[in-house]
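testing teh design pipeline on a random one, pls ignore if ur not involved
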């Protein structure tokens, strides 16, 4: 036997005990595997520990850090064991150990006072935590779930405002290292943590950060730009304008500008708005203001990026009226001269209006997005229902349908069908469907809605689109899937209607042997003619 849980602190150096306590309190001890014979495998801050125990007795131990003496990893694990076995505070255990050794505790207790951590302490801890995941070839679903739970727990257990601010800043600025990894599964849990940190930081920014917070914010920007290989987390585009709107330090603003200038961002579509360019323009605008000069002549001052850069700085400075006046003033010009960037510009203005609860502006730009954008989704339509009183919706949707039809450059059947379907304008949608081929899935959902309001005209149209779907599905398995859907409809029709539909489908499919045989096997036998 090496020692028992009750007297283990006598075998460790004071500094090792303190480091072990810190690891334990920061939840760095994780069970890994239980072997037979009372042998346990643990991970402490990513380091493997193999311990053989019997009750409160440690029989043997081995740590992969290969320390010549008892290390902080084993110390952390013993605090973990002690807390679990005796239900006693490890912090009390450490203070008692110090007193037995004749060490004053009043001063040393500050080491474990969470409120005394600096921003750099939090950043170091988050880097270490993320490193234990980013060393893996890919992040599986279990990894992402485990990490998101851990981060939520840390945020919830951090009580003081300053500590929550620093922890959120550390997670947010370092988050890109996770996105650089290959993620397999649903990362929505992690993204919710990132969004929560963003909201906490935005709240902290609006409370007018002091010099210490400004310094931490600056370091977070530089950290985000350094670690974000693909510039996909959006941390820099959130942090930069907020910092620039409150900073008056020329040297620090120049640091931001230089860090941005050294980065490159590959855009899949060169016509999209370049967020890195927006941030760089913001730094140039701020430098020009601090040095009382004009913005460089080489800058494209008419582009969407320049307008967004100026508006962002005004919004962060809480000059909301000036910001929206600028966005409205430049709207028509950007629509005409920067047509490829126009939908993104609309999205930006709509989002800012929503954040500031300007529902009139939000609705205006939301409708423009639906007309000029490439698609319409259910969330956009739901938002319209939230913004518009019920007695005014019908008229508004009439106008929207007309504008979508009239805007030939971005008109698409999918956008129009989405609006008509969500607003239950089934008759209009059926008339649109007559102009197209192979819209089986959409028509199938429609006819199921309208049961029992079927007509021979609708049945003929349905059969036509079924025939198109069968011909497009060159392999038998997808063809089976189409027929299985058709059966859901057939089962709810009268015998006469079902007989008409099935035989119409057989005619349109050319009575192909395999399709006919499958139809006969799944449909009611007396409905299918030979």
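output:
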């Amino acid at each position: 036997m090496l020692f028992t849980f009750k007297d283990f602190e006598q075998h460790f150096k004071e500094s090792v005990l303190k480091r072990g306590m810190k690891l334990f309190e920061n939840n760095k001890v994780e069970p890994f595997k239980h072997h037979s014979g009372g042998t346990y495998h643990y991970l402490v801050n990513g380091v493997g520990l193999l311990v053989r125990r019997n009750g409160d007795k440690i029989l043997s131990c081995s740590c992969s850090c290969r320390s010549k003496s008892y290390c902080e990893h084993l110390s952390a694990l013993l605090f973990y064991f002690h807390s679990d076995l005796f239900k006693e505070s490890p912090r009390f255990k450490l203070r008692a150990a110090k007193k037995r050794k004749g060490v004053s505790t009043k001063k040393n207790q500050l080491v474990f006072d969470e409120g005394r951590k600096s921003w750099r302490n939090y950043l170091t801890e988050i880097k270490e935590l993320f490193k234990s995941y980013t060393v893996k070839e890919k992040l599986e679903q279990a990894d992402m779930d485990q990490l998101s739970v851990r981060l939520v727990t840390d945020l919830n257990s951090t009580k003081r405002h300053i500590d929550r601010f620093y922890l959120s800043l550390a997670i947010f600025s370092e988050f890109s290292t996770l996105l650089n990894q290959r993620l397999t599964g649903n990362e929505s849990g992690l993204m919710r943590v990132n969004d929560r940190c963003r909201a906490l930081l935005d709240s902290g920014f609006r409370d007018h950060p002091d010099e210490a917070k400004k310094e931490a914010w600056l370091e977070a920007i530089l950290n985000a730009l350094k670690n974000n290989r693909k510039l996909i987390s959006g941390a820099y585009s959130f942090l930069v304008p907020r910092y620039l709107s409150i900073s008056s330090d020329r040297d620090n603003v120049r640091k931001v500008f230089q860090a941005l200038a050294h980065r490159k961002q590959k855009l899949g579509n060169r016509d999209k708005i370049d967020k890195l360019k927006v941030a760089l323009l913001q730094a140039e605008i701020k430098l020009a203001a601090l040095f009382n000069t004009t913005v460089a002549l080489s800058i494209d001052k008419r582009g969407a990026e320049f307008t967004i850069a100026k508006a962002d700085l005004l919004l962060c400075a809480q000059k909301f009226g000036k910001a929206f006046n600028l966005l409205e003033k430049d709207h028509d010009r950007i629509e005409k001269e920067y047509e490829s960037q126009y939908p993104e510009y609309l999205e930006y203005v709509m989002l800012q209006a929503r954040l500031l609860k300007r529902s009139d502006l939000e609705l205006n730009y939301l409708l423009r997005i639906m007309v000029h954008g490439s698609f319409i989704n259910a969330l956009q339509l739901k938002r319209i229902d939230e913004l518009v009183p019920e007695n005014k919706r019908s008229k508004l949707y009439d106008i929207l349908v007309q504008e979508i039809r009239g805007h030939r450059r971005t008109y698409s059947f999918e956008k129009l069908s989405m609006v008509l379907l969500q607003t239950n304008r089934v008759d209009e949608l059926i008339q649109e469907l007559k102009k197209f081929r192979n819209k089986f899935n959409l028509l199938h959902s429609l006819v199921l809605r309208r049961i029992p309001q079927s007509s021979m005209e609708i049945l003929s149209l349905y059969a036509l689109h079924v025939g198109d779907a069968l011909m497009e599905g060159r392999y038998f398995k997808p063809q089976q899937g189409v027929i299985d859907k058709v059966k859901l409809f057939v089962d709810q029709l009268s015998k006469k209607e079902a007989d008409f539909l099935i035989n119409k489908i057989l005619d349109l499919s050319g009575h192909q042997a395999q399709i006919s045989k499958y139809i006969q096997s799944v449909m009611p036998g007396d409905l299918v003619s030979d």
